[in-house]
Amino acid sequence: MKQDIVVKFVEAINNQNLSLIIDMMSEDFYFIDTYGNKENKEQMKIGWQGYFNWFPDYLIEIYDYIESDKFSIIIGKASASYLGNKEKYCEFPACWKVIIKGNQIQTWQVFCDSKKQLDSMK
After folding, report:
1. Greatest CA separation for the chain
2. What mean pLDDT is predicted for residues 111-122?
3. pLDDT number for residue 39
């Protein structure tokens, strides 16, 4: 079931389990950020670790899950503290479009207003 794969990927992100995240990304994986920038699996092997270094307490909370034949949508929120500094904590609503290929994530696309998060980095 697609939902099980998506939830497992979110749990891997929340636990910062980089090896599981990499294993769950298909070879033709793409991460698409809120601005439409795309990064492939090789780029994201480094990208995930860099993100976790910036936001060591990054957490995705799922409120709703919607699934079609072509993709899944997660509706929820993300939260984090820049460099773990609780004074630079932010949380914001977000949703993710997820495309599954076999038992792996082919596309992980985030939609959010990242202003709070970017402001926390100042």
Report:
1. 42
2. 66
3. 97
Q: Apex CA 71: angle with CA 68 and CA 74, to 5°?
A: 95
CA proximity to 104, closest of 24, 48, 8: 24
Assign 3-class secondary structure to the chain. Answer: CHHHHHHHHHHHHHCCCHHHHHHHEEEEEEEECCCCCEEEHHHHHHHHHHHHHHCCCCEEEEEEEEECCCCEEEEEEEEEEHHHCHHHEEEEEEEEEEEEECCEEEEEEEEECCHHHHHHCC
Residue (of 93, 122, 98) closest to 109 by Cα position:
98
For the beta carbon of residue 22, count every other beta carbon within 10 angstroms: 14
Q: What is the pLDDT of residues 22-73, one digit of tens each?
A: 999 999 999 999 999 999 999 999 999 999 999 999 999 999 999 999 999 9
Write down the pTM of the prediction: 0.91
**Residue 107 CB contacts under 8 Å (≥ 6 apart), including other chains:** 29, 30, 32, 71, 97, 98, 99
